[in-house]
Amino acid sequence: MTELAHYAVHDDHARVRRHDEPRAAGRPPFALDRHRILHCTAFRRLEHKTQVFVTHEGDHYRTRLTHSLEVAAQARRLADELRLNAALAEAIALAHDLGHPPFGHAGEAALAARMRDHGGFEHNLQSLRVVEYLEHPYPEFRGLNLSCEVREGLVKHRTTFDRPPPEADDRAIAAWFDTGPHPTLEAQIVNLTDEIAYALHDVEDGLMHELIDEAALSDSRLWREAIGPLRERFPKRHHGAVRRPALDTLCDRLIADAVAATRARLAAARPTDVDALRRHHSPLAGFSAEGRAALDELLAILKKTLYTHDHVRRMDREAERIIAAVFDGYVDSPSRLPPRFAARIDEQGLHRVVCDYVAGMTDRFCRREYEENPPK
To answer: What CATH superfamily classification does 11-209+239-372 receive?
Structure first.
C-alpha cells in the first residue's frame, strides 16, 4: 500500500464527529463514513433521480446514482495518483449529491423559487442537512454522524456550474466548520471529477439518444484528438463502436492533466500539512490552464447543444411545474404530510419541512403525487 503524502488526511488525524462514538474495530473512520453513505436511504433514492434526462424517458440514461458512482471512481483514481486518502475522497463523492431534489437542476430551481423567502434551497447545503439530520438510522443520534472532513467536503463543494450562494455558504461554514477557506485536497479532487463525469456522461447520453450532432463536437479539441485516431484505425466501424474508447481517452487525458497540474501547484506552494493547504490563497487541486480551457470548450458545446435542446427544455418546464404544484399542495394541506414530517412543523416551519419532504422524493414518486393530487 502506497504511503499517504504529508498533505493528505491521515486516518489517525481525522477530526471529531459531532457525536462521540467508539472507533469501529478494523474499520478506519472514512471507510465507516463510506459504509454509512452507501447504506442510507437517500443514497438508494438517487437511482430514481434525474441527472439531465428524466428517468422515465429511457432505461439507459445516467441517473444521480450512476453519476455519483462515476465521480467516486475517478476521485479514487486521482487520490491514488496523488497519494491522498482514497476512502475520504470516495465518501465525499458518494455523498455529494444526496441533497439533489427530483428532476435535476430544474427541480432545484423550482424549490429554490418556492423557498426564496423561507431560508432558501441549495442542494449542497441540503446534502449536508441529509447526513446531519434527515437520515436517522441509528438510535444514538440523528444523522449519519460522519467525520468533519466529509461534511466539510459537502458544504464546500465547488465546480464551474455548481456554486452555492456566498451568503448561504458563509452561514453554513460558520455554523459547522472553522477550517479555512478551502477543504481538504481529497474534497478538492472531487470537485474536479464531478466536472469530468458531467462532461463525459452527458456527451455519451446526448450522442446515444441523438440529441447532440457529433459534428458539433468537432469544435472541441479534446474530442477531435480522442476520436480522430480511432476513426483512422477503424474506418468501417459504426460511430457508436468507437465512442466508448474515445470517451475513455478523453477521461484519461483530463485525469493526467489534473494530476500534473496539482502536483505542480503542490510543489510551488509546499504546504506543510492539511491545515496549511486549507489556508492557501487558492485551491491547489485543479487543471492546467490548457486543460481548463479544453474542458470549458467542451462544456460550452454541451450548453449550446444539449442543455438547451428543445427536448431537454420541455422536460425542464414540466419538472418545474410538477415540483411547484406538489410543493404548493403540501403547503396548502400540511395534514397530508407523513406524521414524522408534520411533527417538525412547529420547530422548523412549514415551508422547510415541505421542502425537505419534496427534495427527498424520487422522480416517479413526485410525479405520482402530482397525478394523484393535481393542482386545483
So the answer is: Hypothetical protein af1432 (1.10.3210.10)
Q: Could you report the per-residue pLDDT of 244-257, keeping only the tens digit for each?
A: 899 999 999 999 99
**Helix 86-95 and helix 29-38, axial crossing angle in degrees, nearest 10:** 30
The tens digit of pLDDT for each residue in 36-52 reads 999 999 999 999 987 65
List helix spans (H) across the chain. 29-38, 41-45, 64-82, 86-95, 104-114, 123-129, 148-155, 166-176, 185-208, 214-217, 221-233, 239-269, 274-279, 289-305, 310-332, 339-342, 345-348, 350-359, 363-372
| SS3 assignment, position 302 | helix
Are the CB atoms for 222 and 249 separated by under 8 Å? no
How many other CB atoms are there within 10 angstroms of residue 335's CB atom?
Answer: 6
Q: How far apart are CA 284 and CA 265, in angstroms?
A: 6
The whole model's pTM is what?
Answer: 0.92
